[in-house]
Amino acid sequence: MILREVFLSDTAFHSVHVLGFKPARGIVSFRQLFWPYRFWLLLGFFLLLITNAMMLMVPRMINMGVQIIEGKPAALDMLSVLVWLFCLAILGAIIRTFSRRTLFNVGRGIERDLRSLLFYHLSLLSSDFYEKHSVGDLMSHLTNDINNVRLFVGFAVLNFLNLVIIFSGSIPVLISIDGSLAFACLLPFLLVIVSAQMLTGRMFHRVKEYQASLAKLTEHVQENLSGAGVVRVFHQERVEEKKFQKTNVNTYQTALRVAQISVVMFPLTRMMIGLGVAVVLYVGGREVVLGRMSVGDYVEVNARLLQLAWPAISMGFILSVYSQSRASLARLNELFVLRPKIIDGTYSNVPISLIETKNLSVRLGKQAHLALQNVDVQLKHGRVIGVVGQSGSGKSTLVRILSREIVADQGEIFYNNVEGSQWKLEPLHQQIAVVSSEPFLFSASVRDNIAFAKIDASDEEVKDVIEKVGLTEDVAGFADGLAQIIGERGVMLSGGQRQRIALARALLVDAPVLLLDDCLSAVDSVTESKIMKTLREKGKHVCLLIVSHRLSAIRHADEIVVLEKGKIVQRGRHEELLKQEEQLYGALWGIEQLQESLSHE
Ligand SMILES: Nc1ncnc2c1ncn2[C@@H]1O[C@H](COP(=O)(O)OP(=O)(O)OP(=O)(O)O)[C@@H](O)[C@H]1O
Ligand SMILES: [Mg+2]
What we know:
Elements: H1 3-6, H2 11-20, H3 30-34, H4 38-69, H5 78-124, H6 127-132, H7 135-177, H8 179-226, H9 228-233, H10 237-289, H11 295-336, E1 354-362, E2 372-375, E3 378-380, E4 384-389, H12 395-402, E5 410-415, E6 418-419, H13 425-431, E7 432-435, H14 446-450, H15 459-468, H16 472-477, H17 495-508, E8 513-517, H18 525-539, E9 543-547, H19 551-554, E10 559-564, E11 567-572, H20 574-579, H21 584-600
Helix pairs in contact: 4-5, 4-7, 4-11, 5-7, 7-8, 7-11, 8-10, 8-11, 10-11, 15-17
The protein binds adenosine-5'-triphosphate and magnesium ion.
């Protein structure tokens, strides 16, 4: 059974476990992770119990062997003792293999569950979350931290169970042989456990520091690799290398601080075992000399003490892995407690034919001024709205609001006359196709990028949208045509080709709302005007909003909205706006016309 069946079964997961997350108030606990695997854990524990019980029989067999050598009466003869020792060794090894496999598999299962839970959770979070968290940091959560949790489940739990079983099996036997000797040789182990307990708290904080530093390192590497071109162009290799070394050294130092504690545990445990052996030699040896203990018992106590050695040594590892995984789970829970800013509603009545904003105001980040202020726009089926304005005037913010990627601080947005917060997000997002000014393409083929949101699209459909965005000739020129791989983020394409593939992707889904955010800025004006003609045709059957810096591209729109510092300062048709003298639109149009005539001279 995996977590997906328990937690991610259906939409109940979304409301109960992610939005409400009732079982543990929004965080994931070890108990929750273990619960689906309780039967496997029990089986692993049971197998460990058997193999350790067999191991605990070995010192008694040795005791008998010594008694036989001494010529004393023993329960078994020498041959039986040897057969027993032989069988215990072989069977013990086989069962131990199965117990390890069972428990390690639980670790791998929990690793998979936690990763899918986190991936799912991240997919629900709104865009403001991604503005605050870097890809590198999230990658570190998905890899390092989850791996640490797995190590605890596999390695630490196995060794801890081992330790508990061996100690609880050995102590009564040791006491039954000689109570005071048992107390004397076990005392050092008690000291190890107490000191381990004391070091755990300190270790936890140091490990957390180390993991945060490791995340910073991943973030740094990720950003530098993505921006390698910029670094090279500005000759900042040395500067960036220095910055990297600073983070690298910091990670190294925090790792050393962790090691300062973990390296102490191992020698400390060895020392305690050494002390235990010395105590047995002194106290036990004296008992043998005085004739109060048999040589067989003395050898058995020694053999049992050595059996306790490895579990005791593993205490140090258990402590360090436990601290690491607790710190990692705490870091993961910092993400799990986050809730999407945009909450899912229940309403859905498609297709959308009307989007209206009323008195919308938006503040982004910690900006002093509003990105949008008292904005009223109306997108209707069959109408084309053009949005213009200078850089930073709020055009992209308006597109993000309309596509419900972000929410307004004030005012309302209605889809088909129903308030946005009441809408179910999935059908709403399916209704709205957006092409942003910086589209993201995947490292896949041209076809797969275009058919991203409609994987079952036929080649004809794909070719049709390619034609509409004027890419037919470009694709014919690619060595592999539609199957051409375009590289990470489409690096193997020109800026204009990238933009048109993104536009083709949006056109293919045939959504009733199409929002285009300056998506042809890198396309030449001749190709742009051809595409615009197609889009105007498309606009007759959808709600279409086009943001553009080139006014000629939206001059035919049914309504043009002019934004300035987040406010609508003018609105109307192209001709009406030109009539309004000494206004922004007229000025922008004048500049554009001048540039046009200069470029033709
Ligand atoms: N995520 C963000 N956090 C904080 N401020 C933001 C964020 N995104 C945009 N802004 C700010 O909001 C304002 C409007 O930005 P917006 O991207 O909407 O402008 P725009 O009109 O699309 O500009 P351009 O024509 O350059 O694309 C700008 O002042 C910008 O600095
Ligand atoms: Mg913009």
